[in-house]
Design brief:
405 residues, 80% helix, disordered N terminus
């Protein structure tokens, strides 16, 4: 292909096809996080209520889901190259729908693990790795903005998904609500993907030609593990997401006994709403900020919120603390990709984002299980939440370690 015949794409134009892909990824993230991430807190509470299983047992199923999902997420970049973004997005949609139905049918502990295995495939096909890699095929200069806007769907999944899921459970029962969620997802997402997601623009093809001499995915991964800049980013975000996921998965169970199920749902909705506010506000300035420092301050703010949650049991203060915690939630899934884009070879973006997502997921997979185990051993959530504070503060220091120039 002759690059001299290539006409530059105006990514700022509202008519650019890439913005349709952003909408698709926004909707995909809404279902992906609504059923695969924020939904976990609902599953823990409902399975405890229905079967009386201990929190550690149910949380270990969540840990298995994240671990198996991490093994799949690491190869999302290669899957998109092999099968194309449209096929991968449709496959992810059907996998997530099948997982939702499976979770609603769980009657025995072994079935929980099987359902979480299916959920791992759905998560790999609807979450951060596939969204960032897909948008990377349509955007270059506006990639950060596109990712930030699309990932607002993750927060929207918590704002709308959790209250709707709880309301549907009250109306249809747990099994019926999960089936309805699956039907709605397939009925909406499959037509949208077929209509909007086509062949990536010419820019992606030229990039492939320019990258003939680029290192292979295996070489990129090997070099990343020898790069202090990559290790500091991946380790810091892995630790903080360990604490964040552990806290969020158990949030409804904790708040249920303190302020009641209805206000607990409000707190989760506000937490995710603030994630949208935080990400939108950051999107205007993040390209001009020290992104590592912004990450460190975000970690500290979450630690402060956790300290308030542990020690103050006033309804309104607890809800406000959840809002403070949520202000950074959205940015913590956006910032790693932006740091990778700024500090590393653009040709390595897809592989490195998939790798850092997998590393983070392997680590935070243990968050729900560890929090549940510490809760069972101590009899309250104070000990595990204090442990989360220590992890957050450690990550705040680690993320400031940079690679040598």
């Amino acid at each position: 292909m002759d690059a001299r015949n290539y006409t530059p794409i105006d990514e700022t134009s509202i008519r650019y096809d890439g913005w349709r892909i952003v909408v698709v990824c926004f909707l995909l993230a809404t279902f992906g996080w609504g059923l695969g991430f924020y939904g976990q807190s609902v599953y823990v509470a409902e399975l405890q209520r229905l079967h009386g299983w201990p929190a550690s047992l149910i949380s270990s199923g969540t840990t298995f889901f994240y671990l198996f999902g991490a093994a799949l997420v690491a190869f999302v970049s290669e899957a998109i190259k092999a099968f194309g973004p449209r096929n991968c997005l449709i496959a992810g949609t059907f996998a997530m729908a099948a997982a939702a139905i499976s979770i609603g049918q769980v009657r025995e502990p072994w079935q929980l693990y099987l359902a979480n295995a299916v959920l791992a495939f759905g998560w790999a096909g609807t979450s951060l790795g596939i969204i960032t890699n897909t948008l990377g095929l349509w955007f270059d200069r506006k990639r950060g903005m596109a990712i930030s806007l699309a990932l607002n769907g993750a927060s929207f999944g918590g704002i709308v998904g959790t209250p709707l899921l709880i309301a549907a459970i009250g109306h249809f029962g747990f099994s019926g609500a999960m089936t309805v969620s699956a039907v709605v997802m397939v009925a909406l997402m499959v037509p949208v993907i077929l209509l909007c997601v086509g062949r990536p623009p010419l820019l992606a093809d030229i990039g492939a030609v320019d990258a003939v001499d680029a290192p292979s995915p295996r070489q990129i991964r090997a070099r990343a593990f020898r790069d202090i800049g990559f290790l500091s980013v991946s380790s810091a975000f892995a630790l903080v997401l360990f604490a964040q996921v552990g806290f969020i998965v158990h949030l409804i169970s904790f708040l249920d006994s303190v302020i009641g199920r209805e206000r607990a749902a409000v707190a989760v909705a506000l937490l995710t709403a603030m994630a949208v506010v935080g990400r939108v506000l950051f999107s205007f300035v993040i390209d001009r900020m020290n992104q590592r420092l912004a990450s460190s301050l975000s970690f500290v703010s979450q630690a402060i919120a956790l300290l308030i949650v542990i020690n103050v049991h006033n309804d309104y203060v607890l809800i406000a603390a959840c809002a403070l915690f949520g202000f950074s939630v959205g940015n913590l899934i956006t910032l790693p990709a932006l740091i990778v884009q700024r500090e590393f070879d653009p040709r390595s973006f897809g592989v490195l984002v998939s790798l850092i997502t997998a590393i983070n997921q392997i680590t935070y997979a243990f968050g729900p299980g560890v929090v549940g185990l510490l809760r069972d051993l101590s009899g309250s959530y104070a000990l595990p939440f204090y442990a989360c504070i220590a992890v957050e503060l450690t990550a705040a220091v680690m993320v400031m370690i940079r690679r040598r120039r």
